[in-house]
Design brief:
It is a single chain. The chain has 246 residues and is of the alpha/beta class. The chain folds into 2 domains: 1-22 and 71-113 and 164-246, Rossmann fold; 30-68 and 117-157, SIR2/SIRT2 'Small Domain' (2-Layer Sandwich). Helices cover 36% and strands 17% of the residues. It has 10 helices and 9 strands. It has helices at residues 31-34, 37-40, 44-49, 51-66, 73-83, 98-101, 130-138, 166-178, 197-203, 230-244, and strands spanning 8-12, 88-92, 109-111, 114-121, 127-129, 153-157, 181-185, 207-211, 224-226. The strands form 2 sheets. The chain has a 6-stranded parallel β-sheet, sandwiched between helices. The protein has a 3-stranded antiparallel β-sheet with strand order 5-4-6. Strand 4 and strand 5 form a beta hairpin. Bound molecules: zinc ion (ZN). Residues 121, 123-124, 126, 146, 148-149, 151 line the site of zinc ion.
Length: 246
């Protein structure tokens, strides 16, 4: 009997959160198809250069923060997978924090595009709680600045026009090369460098499973492609992985 339990890496994209009411901004029904000006709010050039863009962005964050999203059956399936005892790492492109909210330990979640729980200063790099910045906005500061250096504050996310954190990407790469099963869920796998992860996983000998509504460039390389809605497909896939010991 082989004592080594297989490591499962799960890469999640916007598709896993659409059933929680969070729009897939890039998808066919995406918000930016309807309101292109919304894209400015998360693009580093306009955000850095235009105070009015920042004021709109802070207002939007204050308003959307009140309508907090809840995890769905897809997120909960990954919690079940974790609790089964199979070694699991989740790499997520999402900034919604729903994996942690569903009960997955934070140390098992690598947030490739950062998070909305914190702010980061464009000047000195200081990181602080988002709640504090939003409280300042609520109290009448339309564009709260960094308390330490007076610089521009942004959410601690990777905006369009910014590079991924190299350290985070390095960790993602290490997990990808070490895993035995790589599951890509709700991601189009078209944006690099994240799109390279499934390729590296296959090259390192992992079995690739893709769960996505639309075709991806890696479907041919996958051992299995599942097209059904994620909140149905993922719980079923997880039950099977647990039954078969991945
Ligand atoms: Zn600063």
């Amino acid at each position: 009997m082989n004592a080594k339990r297989p490591l499962i890496a799960v890469l999640t994209g916007a598709g896993i959160s659409t059933d929680s009411g969070i729009p897939d901004y890039r998808g066919p029904q995406g918000l930016w198809q309807k309101d292109p000006s919304a894209e400015e709010l998360v693009t580093i050039g306009p955000y850095r250069g235009d105070p009015e863009v920042r004021r709109r962005a802070w207002r939007m964050r204050l308003e959307t923060g009140a309508a907090a999203a809840e995890p769905n059956a897809g997120h909960r399936a990954l919690v079940d997978l974790d609790r089964s005892g199979l070694p699991l790492r989740v790499l997520t492109q999402n900034i919604d924090g729903l994996h942690q909210k569903s009960g997955l330990p934070g140390r098992k979640v690598l947030e490739l595009h950062g998070n909305l729980r914190e702010t980061r200063c464009l000047g000195c790099g200081a990181v602080g709680p988002m709640a504090e910045a939003l409280a300042r906005v609520g109290a009448g500061e339309p564009d709260p600045d960094c308390r330490a250096c007076g610089g521009i504050l942004k959410p601690h996310i990777v905006m369009f026009g910014e590079n991924l954190d190299q350290e985070v990407l390095g960790q993602a790469d290490a997990i990808t090369r070490a895993c035995d099963v790589f599951v890509a869920v709700g991601t189009s796998l078209q944006v690099f460098p994240v799109a390279a992860l499934p390729y590296n996983a296959v090259k390192s000998g992992a079995k690739l499973i893709i769960v996505n509504g639309e075709p991806t460039p890696y479907d041919e390389a996958a051992a299995e492609v599942v097209r059904e809605p994620i909140s149905l497909a993922l719980p079923r896939l997880v039950r099977r992985l647990v039954r078969e010991g991945a």
